[in-house]
Automatic annotation (TrEMBL):
All residue ranges annotated as the PiggyBac transposable element-derived protein domain in the record: 2-92
InterPro entries xref list: PGBD
Pfam families named in the record: DDE_Tnp_1_7
Region of interest (Disordered), ranges: 129-151
Signal peptide as annotated in the record: none
Designated name of the protein: PiggyBac transposable element-derived protein domain-containing protein
């Protein structure tokens, strides 16, 4: 770790594990005494900070939009919450870059955080059974469930409901109670198992 203190308009302290004070460079700063810009020595850590400060400001801005609340006297929980927010925001930036040309798959940061939340609470959990019978399946606006859930091998059971179109082929009365998707399986002439195909990679 390198700790560098530099006197600019005021004393600023930098800590880094990436760069230190050398190589020292020269930069222009306004002098009140001479009333003009003069060359002053600048540590390398300051140059690197000024070069990449846009990323730091962006990260702080994104965290301030939807900050994870931690009401606790344990100081380290605040650091944990900050790291958690940074990880989620970085994942959203990667997701947005990967789907740059696809408007349908683009998600707002708030929607992305909700999707992460739903995935985490559904992973390796049993499906909730409805007491009033089979639920009505509507056409969702986004893919449901997201890909990690359908592969968790937990509580994906077939059930029957009113006839509708299978996700892959023809009409069926079979659906998955956890994924809420119509998925058929046929054992006669045209044998197929869309239920298995959907839940296996």
């Amino acid at each position: 770790m390198a700790v560098v203190r530099w006197n600019d308009n005021k004393v600023v302290t930098f800590i880094s594990s990436f760069v230190a004070s050398e190589p020292v460079e020269t930069i222009l700063r306004y002098s009140k005494d001479e009333k003009k810009k003069i060359l002053v020595q600048c540590p390398q850590i300051v140059r690197q900070y000024n070069k990449h400060t846009g990323g730091v400001d962006l990260a702080d801005m994104l965290i301030s939009l939807y900050k994870t609340p931690f009401k606790t006297r344990r100081w380290y929980m605040g650091i944990f919450g900050q790291l958690l927010d940074i990880c989620v925001n970085n994942a959203w930036l990667i997701h947005r870059k990967a789907n740059e040309g696809n408007r349908k798959k683009k998600m707002a940061l708030k929607a992305f955080r909700y999707a992460v939340h739903e995935n985490l609470i559904s992973e390796n959990r049993c499906a909730k059974r409805s007491k009033s019978g089979a639920p009505k399946i509507n056409t969702p606006r986004k893919a449901r469930p997201s890909s990690p859930i359908k592969y968790d091998n937990v509580s994906h059971f077939p059930q029957t409901m009113e006839e509708g179109r299978c996700r892959y082929c023809q009409k069926t009365v079979v659906y998955c109670i956890k994924c809420q998707k119509r998925l058929c399986f046929v054992t006669e002439k045209n044998a197929r198992n869309c239920f298995l195909d959907f839940h296996t990679k």
